[in-house]
Each structure stands twice: as C-alpha cells, then as structure tokens.
Write a sequence for this structure.
C-alpha cells in the first residue's frame, strides 16, 4: 500500500509539474498574442489620424495640469507654440526608449522630448530661436539644459523621495489599483536613479539651496521681460513652463512652491502669461477624454 502511494506521488511530481508548466506556457502565450494584437491595433489607429499629425504618448492627465510629467507638458506646449496638429494618447505612455513622452508621426516612432522638439522644428520649419543673437542662443541653450538636466532632478527628488509620491497620487486624475500597489517599487527605482545621477546623495536642505540658486538665476535673467528671451516665445519657454507649471499646481507645500509664488513672483507671473498665451483651453484640457 505504501509503495503504491509513493509511486502515485512520484508520478504526480513528475507529470504534474510538466502539466503545470504547459498550462503556464499556454497562458503566457495567449497573453503575449493578445498584447501583440492590441499593440498592432493601436498603431493602426494612430496611423489613421492623418498625415503629419503628431500623436503624443504620455502619462495621464492631472487634476490641475493637463499632464503630471514636466516633459509631456513641455512637448505639448511646444506643439501649441509651433501650431503643429497633434493628438494625445494615454494608453501606451512609455515608448522605444522607455521614456514618456514619445511620439508617432506618419507611422514612425521617436522618444525623448528634446530630440522630438528638434526633429519637429526641422521637419516643420519651426525654429523660434532663429531671430535671436548668438549670445541669446547660447543663453537659451544653457537655460534649457538647466531646466531639463538639473532642475528636473531636484523637483523629482522632492516629489518621489521627500513627499514619497503622495501628492502625485492625489493629483492623478485616476489611480489604478496596480499603480498604488507598485508605488513603493517605483519610488525605489527613482531614488536609485537620483543617487546615481548625484543629486540623491545630498541632504534635502542642500538640494533646496541648489534648486533655489537655479530659480534665482532664471528670475534674474527673466527680469520684467514677457518671456525668457524677450518679447516672443521660443523653445526654452516650453521647457521652463513645463517644469514651473508643475511647481505652481502640483507641488503644494513644497519649498519650491513658495520660491516661485512668493520669493520670485516674476516666475509666477511668467507661468500665468505662458498659460494664457498658449493654453486658453487649460480647464477644458483637464477633462479626461473618452477613448474611442
């Protein structure tokens, strides 16, 4: 009797594992096929928007800003400045480089907001720095890099490390359960990137001081001009607006909110001026669109 039980257990152990593995592989295959089909269908739908219409793929809308990502908001602001037709998509926020935003244009895919803006400027003949002096072009480039490669890291540290992503969740239009569940993992990933970048090695007070120096430099250079480089908007204004708009509306209680709204009030006036100029439909854009 005991021998029969042992033989039965051994048979199940050998064959049951094979059967389980087969079921798992089959389920994985079905899921993979479904994802592939869904991906192909999305791309067919994006290709059908029309020639030279940019489809911007990014993170979802916020409750008080059209997007919670400064880089998505930067790109969308540029498209409005350049009057390039575009549509927003929130189904597939991360593209070929694992970044958000990315775009689809005439069936081609491209990632990285700054490279996208450069490409679109060449393709559509929209270079807003063309009329600037060489000195101004140099300053515009420097401020653009300050915003995208320095300020953005400091702002990210406050959002994900100091605030632990809590305000981010509050400002999201809709928060799927899986997003809440994976938030600790996301925070660890971001902290790791901040540490390797360097700014994550500093204390909160040190980072606040570093970022204030950047904001002060921008404020001093802006002065009483309508926009950063003068009377007309250009690409650097899109990048600056994309970040400062986050501070204005999505960083409640942060030291940077006080800096922008109180200590350097011309930055607040600047953000409102860009918003009024390029985003007259701001409130309407906060409404979540129904997916077709």
């Amino acid at each position: 009797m005991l021998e029969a039980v042992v033989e039965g257990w051994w048979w199940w152990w050998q064959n049951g594992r094979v059967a389980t593995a087969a079921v798992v592989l089959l389920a994985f295959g079905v899921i993979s096929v479904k994802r592939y089909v869904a991906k192909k269908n999305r791309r067919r739908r994006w290709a059908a928007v029309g020639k030279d219409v940019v489809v911007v793929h990014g993170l979802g809308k916020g409750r008080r800003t059209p997007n919670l990502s400064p880089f998505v908001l930067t790109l969308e602001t540029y498209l409005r400045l350049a009057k390039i037709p575009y549509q927003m998509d929130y189904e597939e926020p991360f593209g070929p480089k694992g970044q958000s935003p990315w775009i689809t244009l005439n069936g081609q895919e491209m990632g990285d907001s700054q490279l996208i803006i450069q490409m679109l400027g060449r393709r559509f003949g929209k270079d807003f720095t063309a009329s600037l002096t060489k000195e101004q072009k140099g300053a515009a480039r420097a401020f653009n890099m300050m915003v995208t490669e320095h300020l953005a890291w400091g702002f990210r540290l406050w959002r994900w490390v100091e605030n632990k992503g809590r305000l981010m969740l509050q400002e999201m239009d809709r928060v799927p359960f899986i997003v809440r569940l994976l938030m600790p993992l996301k925070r660890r990933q971001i902290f790791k990137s901040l540490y390797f970048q360097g700014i994550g090695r500093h204390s909160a007070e040190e980072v606040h001081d570093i970022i204030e120096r950047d904001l002060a430099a921008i404020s001093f250079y802006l002065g009483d001009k309508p926009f950063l480089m003068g009377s007309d908007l250009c690409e650097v204004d899109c990048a600056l607006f994309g970040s400062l708009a986050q501070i204005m509306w999505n960083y409640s209680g942060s030291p940077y909110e006080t800096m922008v709204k109180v200590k350097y009030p011309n930055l607040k006036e600047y953000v409102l001026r860009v918003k009024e100029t390029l985003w007259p439909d701001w409130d309407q854009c906060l409404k979540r669109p129904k997916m077709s």
